[in-house]
């Protein structure tokens, strides 16, 4: 009977994809407005698809290489399951597909949203939001589709196993398709992040600072690239990031569930299905929630935000109720505790979002202080922003800490120790699933941001009337708020997902040990390897804090985080430099550009950003892929364990710091533009423009890229676990 | 016989202090120059002692409170050794004394160095360096004195113990006087760091940027406060920091030695004495090295640097040779391996210094790139500096990782596991001792920096001729180089010391467990507690990476690091703001100040910095002291373990990032001032001035303060171990 519940997952998947298609079709039916509007949208669409094409080429090569390596590991060395190369590929393909559809929807929507704003604020909001929902639903729909297919296929083909082993093996294989999603996300986030900020910083440095023309001015040659960048970074990048978190949290939890309730028959199956079912229910609720979003004409920012929040909170509230019954139905012995873990995860997600808003919104003290510090020049703006960003890590880190403890304790009934640890770790995984369960609608609010932003850009460049501009500005401003909280949410869920993956790493170690070394009688922590639990392996490998290999791994993990951020930061600097040179060149050589009589060469700027992003993303990407493998080969399983926890903890903090500093600088600038501390054009305003420019790579490149690094390092360790177990040097 | 070797320690202590006195006396004999020079020096001296007095008042109160708490823990609750309150007090007093003498020497020297530069470059260099050596020798001399006294006293009083227990107990008590040094260092580094940068940033923002007058211009009211700050931060702060590292590395190693060679009679004694003897030999070599420093007239920067390095490298080379014989004499069974650990530590210290130089000196690519990025304005300067700083963490972290592995492996003969772990951890401790062994002379080169800087300031303000200015500039520039490498060295040694302390934490857990719970028969990892090793306790407390308490501790450790940095960063911002207001006020209200006909109110600025530093340092200081206690009470020993390793790894990385970003910005500015990319007064120069101002709190406040945090958190955990063992909630 339990098995038949699983059918909810593919059904939900089909529903989500169908609604995505429905929203997309509805959107394409609305008019794209004047000829100028269409032309501009066309520019952006062309730029975006040129970029995607180029990126997918690179990704294809990388995927072929990695698949070859995995195949050799599986079929040549025998240190990996034979299904892994295929699982890896589908994860990557599905994520790429989601990115493609999301981008398509977003770039098709922007001019239409601008046009809808000529009618009313409500039309604009709904069109923008539902276009964002395309991305949200495609992402969750494709994740659920991938899970449905593989769970069915593996159930069918893996037959020669007894008891709990079958489900364990299926889950262990499925986790690795997260590696495909992770690799795809790496390129999407890092490449997209570099692209968008090279264009943005380049456009601002010459346009705003030197030529003194406003943002989104059609005379600025980099302005189309800047608009493309919003889609590339915040739609495709963010989508790929959360695609992975959603998939990995579900699959890691399934694996942890299979281990925690091993040999308990239907209960084990229930534990494996629980994360999938909860994700499916959350997706259904997201669809309903999307329909609830609407507003009235002349709504204030607060009202607009409430409109979005109604949908989000509706889904969150109902998932709390429905998951109780779902868990009860799945018949887990400690289902009330597990339910508590879900709530802990959900609450943590909301809490982190709130804290992000507090630290980055100009309605609160921190951002106002940064704005005030502009009175003594740009240096104090930077110092205040860095100080605030560093401080802002405290609450999210505390929230995650509390969520970990609570979700563990709820699941174990506040017991610690070897007997209950499996259950507790399952609780942590389930908390991550809880946090992400309503991703369909949260991601819709995220993807809404760049659509509204681009609609504003389109309206500006097409010289639509001030009434329309006011409406698009209102939508854009709302998008900034959701973007900030969305970033906090993405980081928080990345950290929790990575933790769940890390705990499942040891399950993989155990299975690989038994399979590869084929020594079921070797004593592991005084127990034959064949009967040893993952906990015995933790003891056996001395994954404790006095093991120098663990300590060294941790130092390297922290190193990876800082180095990766430095690389992406410098990448933006270099790429932006090229953009500045090009924009200056165009201003110098194209006559009539400043008078608006000649059109700048937008395509050239798009090309520069695209090429710059491609070139610059290779080094950090390769580093992120190589480090776990090298550490595994040199320091073995203890080194990897230290590496991963070091990366997760410090990466989480650094990501929050960067995202919040950047967000706060951005809003401090906007606060001054609203007329405070001298308003637009004052020295104080110039100082905050500098802060905002510094913040761009902080919040949109280096910060979000860390989400990927955190998860990718764990994933790469999971899929190469056979190497670390078999060939390590120390 | 072995016991008689110990006499080398007090003898060296007396020698070091005598030479410090000798250098001081020699220095006071030289002339302080013209009346103006004396007057300015008088201002700085008065400001410095006003600050110290104020700081020591606060520290006294804190010390009394903490002593009261420790006394209650020892005599009331019985969860701490009765000697600890006293050990705590002497550690604090001796560190404070060292700071006092160092400051006195530095502030007495500056005018004299300026005056000596009227004679020749060599006179200037020697006088400045030997005045710096006063600080170096006082620090190591007082550490060795404190060790001599306590080792003798405890040997005398602790008699009722058998076998290895006596030495274990003595060492465990002695480690806690590091807590006194740590607390004193906290206030010296954090308070000093805020003081110096509030003055510096305040002086620069109004002086350089608004009023367009050069640095050290006597018309700037904040200039005396700025000069005082150099002494307060870089002499007293740095000295207290390294006082603690030197003491803690020796004592933690002694404790680890006592545990590793437990019950081996004279061998155990040898292991305990080894770190002390090596420190003593290093100190003797430092004294000789100090005498080797001299230069010729018209020496280039390279030659000047070589002059200093001759002394440093001489001491380092000889310590390698002599420590071999010392260890052989002490009769440790694996003395060649231990010797290898010493070399690993020494090499790591030098390597970190070199890497710091590469990333912060304008002779290399990174800093030149930052300077070049100024062509596109301040925003790209900040982005490039942050990117470079983040990247620059890679090499030091790798070096520390390799040093940990090597020093562990050398000491154990490349064995891992329960049997040899004690030996390996001793190796890590000894590596820290090796790195710090020649501290006498390395600290002399550090303290030399602010003396030369102040001499330059004095020469500028006294209008000495261009020939003299050229000489003081040369000395100052050399000081900048040594300051940068000195910072890297201080951070690296802090990390290694903290690691040694962390490993000794578990020894303390073991002893506390047996003593406090008085249950020697309780089974710990299947062994009666009375016979259990610290390793059994690691297993018993589940200090492994799957324990949620450990993971939570790690998140909180990372949080503490980021929060602490944010607090100190914002503290500088706020205090600098006050200084800016005051300087602006003086420019506005004191007639004739800009014409040089009226003297500004220097004292008022000194007072503002002093008060600002006092007020601002309280919150971060209390947080640093409270977190380990609270985490211990809530999460117990596993939580503390995670907390400490999280703090050490991420704190190390963040400290390096901040120090190197700051150093690179500073030198990028100087590089442009030398005439590159437009030179002084150009837009590029203005952009780098902003970078430099941002870098000030990075490199001189938040970065160095992290050294303290890293060590203090471990120390605080060590001294409150009784609470965590007995009263923890989870």
TrEMBL record, chains A, B:
The record marks 483 as: Determinant of potassium dependence. GO terms for biological process: sodium ion transport. Pfam families: H_PPase. Its EC number is 7.2.3.1. InterPro entries: PPase-energised_H-pump. Its main location: membrane. It is found in: Cell membrane; Endomembrane system. Keywords: Cell membrane, Hydrolase, Ion transport, Magnesium, Membrane, Potassium, Sodium, Sodium transport, Translocase, Transmembrane, Transmembrane helix, Transport. One of its GO terms (molecular function) is potassium ion binding. It is a multi-pass membrane protein. The keyword Membrane applies. Its cofactor is Mg(2+). Requires K(+) for maximal activity. GO terms for cellular component: endomembrane system; plasma membrane. It catalyses: Na(+)(in) + diphosphate + H2O = Na(+)(out) + 2 phosphate + H(+). The chain crosses the membrane at residues 6-24, 58-77, 83-106, 127-153, 165-187, 242-262, 268-292, 304-326, 338-360, 381-405, 425-444, 488-506, 545-564, 621-637, 708-729. HAMAP family: PPase_energized_pump (MF_01129). Homodimer. Belongs to the H(+)-translocating pyrophosphatase (TC 3.A.10) family. K(+)-stimulated subfamily. Sodium pump that utilizes the energy of pyrophosphate hydrolysis as the driving force for Na(+) movement across the membrane. This is Putative K(+)-stimulated pyrophosphate-energized sodium pump. It comes from Xiashengella succiniciproducens.
């Amino acid at each position: 009977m339990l098995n038949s519940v699983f059918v909810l997952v593919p059904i939900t998947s089909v529903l989500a994809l169908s609604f995505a298609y429905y929203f997309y079709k509805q959107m394409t039916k609305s008019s794209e407005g004047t000829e100028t509007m269409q032309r501009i949208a066309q520019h952006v669409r062309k730029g975006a698809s040129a970029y995607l094409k180029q990126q997918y080429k690179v990704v294809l090569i990388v995927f072929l290489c990695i698949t070859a390596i995995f195949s050799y590991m599986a079929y040549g060395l025998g240190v990996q399951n034979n299904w892994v190369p295929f699982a890896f590929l589908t994860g990557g393909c599905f994520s790429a597909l989601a990115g493609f559809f999301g981008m398509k929807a977003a770039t098709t929507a922007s001019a239409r949203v601008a046009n809808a704003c000529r009618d009313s604020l409500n039309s604009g909001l709904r069109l923008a939001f539902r276009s964002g929902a395309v991305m949200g639903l495609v992402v969750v729909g494709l994740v659920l589709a991938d899970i449905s297919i593989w769970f069915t296929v593996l159930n069918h083909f893996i037959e020669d196993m007894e008891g709990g082993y079958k489900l364990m093996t299926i889950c262990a294989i499925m986790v690795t398709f997260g590696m495909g999603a992770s690799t795809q996300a790496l390129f999407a986030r890092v490449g997209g992040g570099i692209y968008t900020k090279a264009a943005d910083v380049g456009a601002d440095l010459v346009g705003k600072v030197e030529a003194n023309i406003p943002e989104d001015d059609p005379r600025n040659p980099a302005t189309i690239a800047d608009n493309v960048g919003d889609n590339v970074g915040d739609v495709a990048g963010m989508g790929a990031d959360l695609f992975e978190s959603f998939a990995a949290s579900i699959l890691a939890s399934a694996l942890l569930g299979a281990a925690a309730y091993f040999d308990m028959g239907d209960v084990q199956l229930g534990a494996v299905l629980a994360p999938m079912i909860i994700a499916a229910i959350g997706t259904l609720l997201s669809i309903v929630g999307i329909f609830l979003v609407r507003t009235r004409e002349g709504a204030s920012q607060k009202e607009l935000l409430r409109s979005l929040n109604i949908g989000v909170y509706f889904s969150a509230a109902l998932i709390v109720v429905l998951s109780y019954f779902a868990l009860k139905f799945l018949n887990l012995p400690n289902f009330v505790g597990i339910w508590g873990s879900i709530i802990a995860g959900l609450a943590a997600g909301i809490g982190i979002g709130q804290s992000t808003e507090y630290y980055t919104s100009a309605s609160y003290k921190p951002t106002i202080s940064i704005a005030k510090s502009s009175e003594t020049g740009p240096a104090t703006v930077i110092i205040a922003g860095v100080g605030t960003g560093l401080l802002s890590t405290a609450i999210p880190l505390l929230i995650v800490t509390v969520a970990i403890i609570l979700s563990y304790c709820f699941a174990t009934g506040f017991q610690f120790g070897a007997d209950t640890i499996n259950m507790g770790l399952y609780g942590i995984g389930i908390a991550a699933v809880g946090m992400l369960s309503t991703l369909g609608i949260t991601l819709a609010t995220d993807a809404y941001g760049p659509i509204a932003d681009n609609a504003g850009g389109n309206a500006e460049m097409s010289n639509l009337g001030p009434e329309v501009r006011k409406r698009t500005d209102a939508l854009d401003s709302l998008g900034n708020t959701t973007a900030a909280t969305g970033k906090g949410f993405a980081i928080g869920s990345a950290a929790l997902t990575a933790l769940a993956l890390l705990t499942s790493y040891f399950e993989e170690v155990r299975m690989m040990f038994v399979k590869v070394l084929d020594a079921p009688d070797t004593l592991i922590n005084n127990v034959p390897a064949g009967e040893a639990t993952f906990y015995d392996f933790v003891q056996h490998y001395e994954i404790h804090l006095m093991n120098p290999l663990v300590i060294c791994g941790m130092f390297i993990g922290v190193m990876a985080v800082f180095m990766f951020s430095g690389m992406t930061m410098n990448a933006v600097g270099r790429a932006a430099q090229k953009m500045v040179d090009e924009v200056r060149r165009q201003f110098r050589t194209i006559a009539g550009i400043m008078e608006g009589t000649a059109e700048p060469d937008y395509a050239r700027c798009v090309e520069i950003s695209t090429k710059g992003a491609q070139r610059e993303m290779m080094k950090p990407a390769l580093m992120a892929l190589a480090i776990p493998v090298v550490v595994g080969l040199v320091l073995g399983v203890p080194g990897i364990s230290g590496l991963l926890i070091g990366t997760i903890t410090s990466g989480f903090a650094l990501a929050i710091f960067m995202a919040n500093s950047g967000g706060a600088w951005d809003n401090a600038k906007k606060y001054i533009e609203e007329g405070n501390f001298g308003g637009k054009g004052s020295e104080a305003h110039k100082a905050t423009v500098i802060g905002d420019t510094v913040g761009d790579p902080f919040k949109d490149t280096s910060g979000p890229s860390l989400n990927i690094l955190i998860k990718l390092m764990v994933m790469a360790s999971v899929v190469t676990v056979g190497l670390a177990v078999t060939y390590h040097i120390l």
